[in-house]
Amino acid sequence: MRSRSRKRFGDLFPAPPPDPTECPDCGSQRILRICYGLPGPEMRERALQGEIVLGGCIFRTPRWCCKECLHHWPEDPPSGQLHGTEEWREKYVAEQAAEYAQLSQDASGPPLAGEPSVANYWERSDGRKVFLVRFEWGVMRVEKQLHLLAHGGTPVYTIVAGFPPLEVGFHGASYLGSLAAMRFETRRVA
Ligand SMILES: [Zn+2]
């Protein structure tokens, strides 16, 4: 009797998938669990020791993080959709295209002072291109994403992980990161 009810309990709560042993993006085994919620002393200590990553108080989909390439997974499936009114969508697509055109122009000029370099690059099976951009303060993961193409737009360089210290400022760093990625890509094709 007891074993039967146990079995039912097991059916209701299937065992979670086993912990991954390597990053699905780069194959590195240096992966960490992302822990959400307000950290207690023990969690904070483990994060300081580099055993886990604190994900903040808002629960999100990624459970794992790669120390090598900064990939966070599992990912939310790409929606391929733009929200908002049609007017807003057109404006957004046009803004991104203008930004892309400006970046292309800047990338054809000489390197800027303090411009970072691309330390690693690969193309994912879903078409996204990954650039690990090395700054003096650390590494930023820049991805060239194609979700706006369906809307008649351009690719978009997005900073997906590796945020600069406050004194550096996100805006400037994200511009330099995108610029380095585009310059690297242009040179590769040439
Ligand atoms: Zn990785």
SSE arrangement:
Blueprint (H helix, E strand, L loop, with lengths): L1 H11 L18 E6 L4 H8 L3 E5 L7 E3 L5 E2 L12 H22 L9 E7 L5 E6 L4 E7 L10 E6 L8 H20 L1
Parallel strand pairs: 1-2
Antiparallel strand pairs: 1-3, 3-4, 5-6, 6-7, 7-8
For the report, how would you describe the main beta sheet?
A: 4 strands, mixed
What is the end-to-end distance?
A: 72 Å
> What's the total helix number?
4
What small ligands are held by the chains? zinc ion
Quaternary state of the chains: single chain
Strand order of the largest sheet: 2-1-3-4
Computed over alpha carbons, the radius of gyration is 21 Å
Any overview of this molecule?
- This protein is α+β, with helices and mostly antiparallel strands and 190 residues long.
- The chain folds into two domains: 57 residues, no CATH class; 104 residues, no CATH class.
- 32% of the residues lie in helices and 22% in strands.
- It has four helices and eight strands; from the N terminus they run αβαβββαββββα.
- The strands form two sheets. A four-stranded mixed sheet has the order 2-1-3-4. It has a four-stranded antiparallel sheet with strand order 5-6-7-8.
- α2 links the parallel β1 and β2.
- α3 crosses α4.
- The radius of gyration is 21 Å and the shape is globular.
- The chain starts with a helix and ends with a helix.
- The model has no long low-confidence stretch (mean pLDDT 89).
- Bound molecules: zinc ion.
- The site of zinc ion has 8 residues, from loops.
